[in-house]
Design a protein that fits this description.
163 residues, mainly alpha, 3-stranded antiparallel β-sheet, 63% helix
Length: 163
């Protein structure tokens, strides 16, 4: 497809903002995929997502975890079974009610996420370090503002993953 083609389905053809946003989204996805290669065999993307969500939620119940993941209760329970079996998540009776199950990251789950994040941060820092000091501070400021705006939008939308 050629740039500027009115018949194109590519949203970046006529909008440089869209092109920049998609370039960043694709770069972030590539960084995450490369870091995922360092994870132990058998960790699926949905398991990694569940661990990441649990990291943000802390101890929570299966219903809240399922809501945050957009999964049914039975699927969430099966996912947690696999994570518990792998030693990445701890499951126990909720301190609030014996009928509720509480889940949280185990020490091993926390270490796994820290290693994954460490790989991502190393690659992102290398990109950031390619800028001169002044430009690096400008980019960091813009990233902080973007992150804060995205978080505010998540909170306004009632996203259960944001506390």
């Amino acid at each position: 497809m050629t740039s500027g083609n009115a018949d194109s389905d590519d949203p970046t053809d006529d909008d440089p903002t869209d092109a920049a946003l998609l370039a960043v989204a694709r770069a972030m996805m590539a960084v995450s995929l490369r870091a995922a290669v360092t994870l132990p065999a058998g960790i699926s993307p949905i398991q990694l997502r569940a661990l990441t969500v649990l990291s943000g939620l802390g101890q929570t119940n299966l219903a809240d975890l399922g809501a945050a993941l957009g999964m049914s209760p039975s699927s969430t329970s099966r996912l947690c079974d696999r994570l518990v079996a792998g030693g990445l998540v701890e499951r126990r009776t909720s301190p609030h009610t014996r009928r509720e199950v509480a889940v949280r990251l185990s020490g091993e789950g926390t270490r796994l996420l820290a290693g994954y994040d460490g790989h991502r941060l190393a690659e992102l820092r290398a990109v950031l370090d390619s800028f001169g000091p002044r430009r690096r501070q400008e980019v960091l400021g813009a990233l902080r503002d973007f992150g804060a705006a995205a978080r505010a939008a998540d909170i306004a939308a009632g996203d259960p993953r944001v506390r």
